[in-house]
Design goal:
The protein is of the alpha+beta class and 310 residues long. The protein has 7 helices and 17 strands. A hairpin with a 3-residue loop joins strand 16 and strand 17 (303-309). Helix 1 (33-42) crosses helix 2.
Length: 310
């Protein structure tokens, strides 16, 4: 079951829809994802169970669904978006390459499909250490007002010459740290700024338009295993594909529940806080995004997030 948020072009009202795997849409009685979580909580039900029960009781709520023409909005406007880093072997290897003096190359341990695998170096770096540590790297990423919408723009930093998308599975969490659902995320990174000094990571990761989520939230279901899902990213310029790669969520070194638990350790959040879980596929250097590029990120069971670079 997916949750999408759309603008009804006839009434100009925002609607929250439940979309079945057969692409049958139902208009829900709430208009935001936090309101859905609150309604489920009031009935002591998991979000998916609450939605399924409501649909069974309200079959008349079905509405036409035209995926190609719907005005799809952000599926949720989170007060805060956070991100985890160095959660895949590919990320550790790539970031170690950034700070390593060695120029040798080898074969990455990661089984990512696509170009740009970079081997880890013999000298441990801060990225090697955090990859092996119990505590993950977590950092603040964005707010709702800074997010790019599905089908909308993500923005380049004006002071960076090396910027790439990082396709990620995103957790959508309740205020008490439970995983309510999953969405796709596009996390832009200015790798030349991070390369200059790891202390510049906030500037390399956080700016207006540096990420996007969507197009839907896949409600958490005990019968589904997100580690079985595949993430695929492609970048096109002037309608020509420049790069494409894919990886399995199962290549995560850390569990998604552990990442969520660390985020909530000694902290408080509103319903719907989002947590990017890291990436395993990044375009190899010297690639950099340019204005007008198209980024497609597809995750099984969620859908395809499309953004245009500005």
């Amino acid at each position: 079951m997916r949750i999408v948020r759309v603008m009804n072009e006839s009434t100009q009202a925002i609607e929250l829809l439940a979309l079945t795997d057969e692409d049958i849409a139902y208009k829900l009685p709430v208009s935001s994802f936090p309101a859905l979580l609150e309604a489920a909580r009031a009935e002591r039900a998991a979000p998916k169970a609450w939605v399924s029960s409501w649909l069974a009781d309200n079959p008349e709520a079905v509405r036409p669904w035209r995926a190609e023409t719907e005005a799809v909005l952000l599926p949720h406007e989170p007060a805060e978006v956070w991100a985890a880093g160095v959660t895949y072997e590919r990320t550790r290897a790539a970031k170690s390459e950034v700070v390593s003096k060695s120029k040798g190359k080898g074969e990455c341990e990661c089984k990512c499909e696509g170009e740009g695998n970079i081997a880890a170096k013999s000298e441990p770096t801060i990225y090697d250490k955090v990859y092996e540590a119990d505590r993950p790297e977590l950092f603040f990423k964005s707010t709702a007002s800074r997010l790019g919408a599905p089908g909308g723009h993500v923005r380049l930093r004006t002071d960076s010459l090396s910027q790439v998308p990082e396709p990620e599975l995103v957790l959508v969490l309740t205020y008490d740290g439970e995983i309510a659902g999953f969405t796709a995320g596009n996390d832009l990174s200015a790798r030349d700024i991070e390369k200059a000094n790891p202390l510049y990571i906030p500037q390399a990761k956080i700016w207006n338009g540096s990420c996007s989520i969507g197009p839907a939230i896949r409600l958490a279901d005990p019968a589904e295993n997100p580690y079985d899902w595949t993430i695929t990213c492609s970048i096109a310029r002037d309608e020509q594909e420049l790069w494409q790669a894919s990886a399995s969520v199962g290549q995560l070194k850390r569990s998604i529940t552990d990442l969520a638990a660390y985020l909530f350790r000694d902290n408080i959040f509103e319903d719907g806080v989002c947590l990017f879980t890291g990436t395993c596929i990044v375009p190899p250097e010297p690639f950099t995004l340019q204005s007008g590029d198209r980024i497609d990120i597809h995750i099984d069971r969620i859908g395809k997030l499309v953004n245009f670079v500005k």
